[in-house]
Design a protein that fits this description.
CATH superfamily: P-loop containing nucleotide triphosphate hydrolases
Bound molecules: adenosine-5'-triphosphate, magnesium ion
Order of helices and strands: EEEHEEHEHHHEHEHEEHH
CATH topology: Rossmann fold
Oligomer: single chain
Shape: globular
CATH architecture: 3-Layer(aba) Sandwich
Helix content: 25-40%
Structural class: alpha/beta
Number of helices: 9
Strand content: 15-25%
CATH class: Alpha Beta
Length: about 260
């Protein structure tokens, strides 16, 4: 029924203890789209992203992710979703175990029960590493042997290996230098062209979101204040909050709307 949507949230709540961090939130993310999710620190971006991948419990409303009702998952669906929906965190150290070689980490991503890479799986791992700009020589190494940008490439390869339909990338370029950030953005653009992928790209940077995404969702205090195509939102933001965000981005149509500085 919901074939065209990868994520449909209808008035969902997510709470920690007695605090409702997300309240009555509704969104729809079309399959194959790349959506930027922005908003100030603490607005609930990661909380929403983790709810979408099943890491946070939804306490009210309905949440459908790639055709699965997240509030009523069977064991089998949970297993399927552990492959088809991937979350990449900001700090790859939290997804790449420091005591495991890249080979062990990737083997687990391909088959959690196998423990080692079969010849076929190794070929797949090397092909995926190549597609993110690395080579098979990284397999025997440990995460500490890589730069931040290389670790994010490995984290991206790890997320791609099970053949996901949906990736939630949570500030994956935020800790990187601007030039490395640009390389990762180019990589994501290329990967998106190579396979059918829906991507929710959580970021503090409107400039990065503008380069990568077709749509933008703006969150404030656990609610969505804006959702639309990038071009529309950038030219005619409907909320005051989005206008304020845009006013701080040099080069954006709304830059310094109030200050009147020359562009
Ligand atoms: N596991 C948790 N337990 C309790 N409170 C939490 C938990 N996770 C998030 N929160 C709270 O939920 C609110 C939203 O946090 P969240 O991490 O989703 O924000 P964010 O938009 O991702 O912020 P940032 O841009 O800083 O990453 C914050 O007030 C945070 O303290
Ligand atoms: Mg966050």
């Amino acid at each position: 029924m919901h074939d065209s949507a990868a994520v449909i949230a209808d008035r969902i709540d997510v709470s920690f203890g007695h605090v409702n961090v997300i309240s009555q939130l509704s969104i729809r993310v079309a399959r194959g789209s790349t959506v930027g999710l922005v908003g100030e620190s603490g607005s609930g971006k990661s909380t929403l992203g983790k709810a979408i991948v099943g890491m946070n419990r939804v306490s009210a409303g309905t949440l459908d992710v790639v055709g699965h009702d997240m509030r009523r998952l069977s064991r089998r669906e949970r297993h399927t979703l552990s492959r088809t929906v991937q979350y990449i965190p900001q700090d790859p150290y939290s997804s790449l175990s420091p005591r495991r070689t890249i080979r062990q980490t990737l083997a687990e991503a391909i088959d959690p029960r196998a423990g080692r890479l079969s010849a076929d799986a190794e070929a797949l791992a090397v092909a995926t590493l190549t597609s993110v700009g690395l080579g098979g020589d990284v397999l025997a190494k440990y995460p500490h042997e890589f730069s931040g940008g290389q670790r994010q490439r490995i984290a991206i390869a790890r997320a791609l290996l099970p053949g996901p339909e949906l990736i939630i990338a949570d500030e994956i370029t935020s800790a990187l230098d601007v030039s490395v950030q640009a390389e990762i953005i180019e990589l994501l653009k290329r990967l998106r062209g190579e396979r059918p992928l829906t991507m929710v790209f959580i970021s503090h940077s409107l400039a990065v979101v503008e380069q990568l995404c077709e749509e933008i969702i703006v969150m404030q205090r656990g609610a969505i204040v804006e959702h639309g195509p990038i071009t529309e939102v950038f030219h005619a933001p409907s909320s005051l909050y989005t206008r304020q965000l845009l006013a701080s981005v040099p080069g954006s149509p709304g830059f310094d709307l109030d200050g009147g500085a020359q562009q």
